[in-house]
Amino acid sequence: MSSSKESGKKTAKAEDNTATRRNIKSWLTDMDGVLVQEGKAIPGASDLINQWRERDIPFLVLTNNSIYTPRDLSARLEHSGLIVPEEKIWTSALATAVFLRDQAPGGSAFVIGEAGLTTAIHEAGFIMTDTQPDYVVLGETRSYSFEAITKAIRLINEGARFICTNPDATGPSAEGVLPATGSVAALITEATGRKPYIVGKPNPMMFRSALNKLGVHSDDTGMIGDRMDTDIVAGIEAGMHTVLVLSGIADKAEIDRYPFRPKEILASVADLVDK
Length: 275
Known about the structure:
Blueprint: H1 2-22, E1 26-30, E2 36-37, E3 40-41, H2 45-54, E4 59-63, H3 70-80, E5 89-91, H4 92-103, E6 108-112, H5 115-123, E7 127-128, E8 135-138, H6 146-157, E9 161-164, E10 170-171, E11 178-179, H7 181-192, E12 197-198, H8 204-214, E13 221-225, H9 228-237, E14 241-245, H10 252-255, E15 264-266
Parallel strand pairs: 1-4, 1-13, 4-5, 6-7, 6-8, 8-9, 9-12, 13-14, 14-15
Antiparallel strand pairs: 2-3, 10-11
Helix pairs in contact: 4-5, 4-8, 6-7
């Protein structure tokens, strides 16, 4: 009898979550593992994006990758079979630039990163310099320079504030994993005793800056992700309807490791497309 009641409660809860989803007026979605996997569009991703565009539903595609500009990412997504205009892409580099502009308008920074980050910081009105900068900003790059890392350490020791675009310790490559922002940040922290402020996921600030860009509210916005430790926890902390898809990193065993739960767990974004 109790088993029957428990099953009924789970069904009712699933129906409640689905009903809540119907009230969602805007969406944020992660990119890798949600829309694309290994350079190819995940089945249903193109249909979902087309559905949003046809219904004029505000949305942004989010990524912690700070290497590429939105224009670059739009072209890469198109090559994967997805049409996503550059203005619909929000990166950790853009979120970092917004944070810096709000903190110190017209400030200066020593930047370790590539075009996605340097372009965003330049457009935010910052001066990039290695002479007494207000900030040291660390982002993703395909080739970290020991000279640049040494310079960053010395500038932080001299008083520059330490900012990172994202905490990811490793990144993928054809040959295997590569050290990423989080690993280099740990090296700098060990040398300076200063921990960085990280703007990208899982900091809900990245989501709040995305909400501000769309001009929408968290109460009626959904977040789709494939990671419990970044997408889902940040979505919960930002007050959004969270949807975990199992097309990327997370599986049911990983879900059980965390004390929090997404509102919905779906096989892929195909389950969000109206039939």
